[in-house]
Amino acid sequence: MSMTPETARRPQYGAPAPDGLITGETPVGFELIGVKKRALIQLMGSRVWGRFNPNHWDTHYAHSTGLRNPIQTGEMCSAYLAEMCVNYFGRHFFRQSRMTCKYIASIHANEVITTYGVVRGKEAHDGGVRFELEIWAENEEGEKKTVGTVSVDVRP
Amino acid sequence: MSAQEKNVTSTEDLRPMTEVQARQTREFVEGLNSQSKPYWDLVAVGDERSRDLHIIPELVILYADGVEDFNPWYEGWLMDQWRIEGSSPFGPAIVPPLLVSHFVLSVQFDHTKPFAIGSIHTYHDSEILAPIPVGATVRIHTKAVEKFIRRDRRYVRHVVTVTDVASGELYLRETRDILSL
Fold this sequence. Notes:
heterodimer, A: alpha+beta, Thiol Ester Dehydrase, Chain A, 5-stranded antiparallel β-sheet, B: Thiol Ester Dehydrase, Chain A, 7 helices
């Protein structure tokens, strides 16, 4: 793929900090500010997301299977949580990190979802500091939808 | 009216359609539904599958736009430039950290058979080991390692690896559960 000089010079407005916002000095108990998204049925049913399963985008089908509305694929919520982690860990999130997600409740079309994260532990080692986080996503009523953990190495 | 009923949103509100679109949608859904079988019946413990995925820039854009993640590190394609090398902390554009995890379902579900549409992904434990450059071709390998029943629900567990086809570098290792009808 070729890259024009104009492209190379373009600033990346809105990009996360390359090294993230969390440093070795960040304390246990630090709270991340997450991302907030509406579960839009048009995105839930797009071809690379939920088109293969009408429970993700078709109201009639969802009702027939007992759902009150179509539900997001769980991976969409994992992507929201990963976006938050990239915002805070930058490049560190892409090497030797670990993320678990358990989808404990369905995210229905039109719900507004916010992600959260709290540093629950940190341990220094030869190469840097290993952070352990609790992460979750919930709707506007505070109902938890996805819960999980993240481990990331922050290296100099 | 119960709280559950109150929260039901009409199709018209969520996804306005004309009768032509509604008919096309019904045909599509009925087609999917008529061929679907429970995932539980389609998988045996020990089943292994592998497919190669060329992560072209446009695929990354489709994935990221679907979750409204507009991080420029993932842009190997721009509307006015089309394909570009892009830029990230690792040099050229990279792939969102869980993109390949999402495409595992196109491997663990046998793509030569109709999709088991009643299935729900319930859990993943993902090790993100190295950044994936946009344009890479990765090999997604899945193995069904367990089928289990918990609280009268049927689950299938897979272990997954994602490696670079050219270099062999291991990008992602994962364990994931699917709830079957």
